[in-house]
Amino acid sequence: MEAGGRRERRREAAEYYGGQRVPERMEEALNALFPLRPGDLYGELANYLSKYSKTPVICKLVGRKVLDGVGQPTLEVEVYCTVKNYEKRICSTVMSCHSQIPENALPETIEADEEERKDSVDTAVEWVNESLNTMLRDLEPTDQCQVDKMLGEYFTNKVKEKKIQKQEEEGEEEEEAEATLALTPPTPSPPSPRGKNKAAKAGKKLSVAERPIPAAEPAEPVLCGSLAIGGTSLAIAKAGATISHIPLYSHIALLKHHQESPEEISLPLPMVTLVNCEKISPSKLKLVKEVMLIPPVHLSLKQGIERVLHIQKEMTRLLESPGKMPGPQPADSKKGRAQNSGKKSLPQFLKRISHLGCLTTGYDDVEQLLLVMQTACSNIGLELGTDVYLAINCAAHELMDYDKGKYEILTGTFKSPDEMVAMYGELIDKFPFIIALIDPLRKEDREQWSNICCALGSKCYLIAEDAATCISKLKTAQSINTPMCSGVVLKYINQTKVSDLIELTGILDGQRHITVLGSPDGESSDDSLVDLAVGLGARFLKLGGLSRGERVTKYNRLLVIEEELAKNRNLR
């Protein structure tokens, strides 16, 4: 009886293995490996047969609260897949946080923003561990389109729920207010001095010569928990690349080009922040937030970054030795060296590295800053406009004094939007080594954006960062719904999905706008942004300075990608 049972099991096993074509494939494997006589026969057998295994599927997502590069809470998403019948951790990603609060915000505003961020991260962790974990289970991590479609639908439903909740809360507040008014007896109010108010208003109208500026557009609302959408989409993209045994940048390029691998890949030019001129510093200059160095295209990335490091070292030496600071010198205006005969006070070097990973200092005007940079380059045998170029992030939205209707470019010095356009024209004519201006105006000053593009569009890039609308609006409009500009800085934040970036960069490419992938203020140690920039074919990559680990790790990743592409002869 026992022997009969064994025979039955053997028969069932033979049918099972035969149905799976195991004997046939084992014979194929042995025949293929015999001529090779591998040292690890069973390892090679496992490798050979693994191509017949089932495609890995997502089995678990794990979200947790971690810290970003400036010590603020952010979201980490881990992806686990079922691989050859075992649960296996594939990868993780840490999201970068972006704050819309300007440097000169009030302490209570900053504190409220930090509390809101904590709540948002807590909600994002809950979404990942509960709803998204269940929703995406058993999907293939290589199916990015389906994953992002489901994430988008989930987010849309959450936005609708929030709107309904807000309407209900407003309705309850109105009912409470009406009940309170019904119980409170009316009190006579003192007459208002109408004549005085009218006179004051009339006087104010007469004192303003310029036409009124457009009001600031409200900041795009950020749904609490939206980090979960962006974090999950990017984590699954990384998992798809890992499962496919290719780098993330190759996976992104395949997704963008409909699974057709480009023969050559070009690397983005780095915009390396050298100096951060804090707008809250005691120095007068407020117009410049960041000064960035752009290496010339004929250098390799490795050579370009080494050149920037030499300039940074010389700048630090000059700033730490006030006696060695340059005096005003006449120079050849052809190379952008302006004549300057007035005495300037020395810049204040704050002797610390900013959160952007660069030197922090302050100046009294733009020309003083540019003169110091010219001197630093000259001291090491380099010339601005030939050996290296400059980009300036003006962050003009932080300069507007809405009471005066003007930009405060220096302490106590104000200019109207039209005057700003004229000022930038003079600046670029005097210093032609400046090849990019980021946010030279607010997004609301659309007429002036058009004017500045007509005046300077052939001389330098005019790029919208804060002045660009959020990615969701850009994608929905199917056009660049920003002021007239040369290009846009895109940031991977909040509910942005990988598919959104792929679609939007395609729109930008079609309209001949340049794409700049930018690093948010609250950067993390995750280096996926670099792979995204390479895979999407971005023209520039704005990562901050060459200090602070969370920023340097991205430059290191860029160097590794350059080495890989050169080795595989795929580098354009």
From TrEMBL:
Q: Name one GO biological process term.
A: glycolytic process
Q: Which residues form the Enolase C-terminal TIM barrel domain?
A: 264-571
Q: Which UniProt keywords apply?
A: Glycolysis, Lyase
Pathway annotation from the record: Carbohydrate degradation; glycolysis; pyruvate from D-glyceraldehyde 3-phosphate: step 4/5
Enzyme Commission (EC) number: 4.2.1.11
**Molecular function GO terms recorded:** magnesium ion binding; phosphopyruvate hydratase activity
**Keyword check for Lyase:** yes
Comp. bias intervals (Acidic residues): 169-178
Q: Is-annotated flag, keyword Lyase? A: yes
- Gene3D superfamilies named in the record: Enolase-like C-terminal domain, Enolase-like, N-terminal domain
**Protein name in UniProt:** phosphopyruvate hydratase
Q: Which organism is it from?
A: Onychorhynchus coronatus (Royal flycatcher)
Kindly list the organism's lineage.
Answer: Eukaryota, Metazoa, Chordata, Craniata, Vertebrata
The coding gene here is Eno4
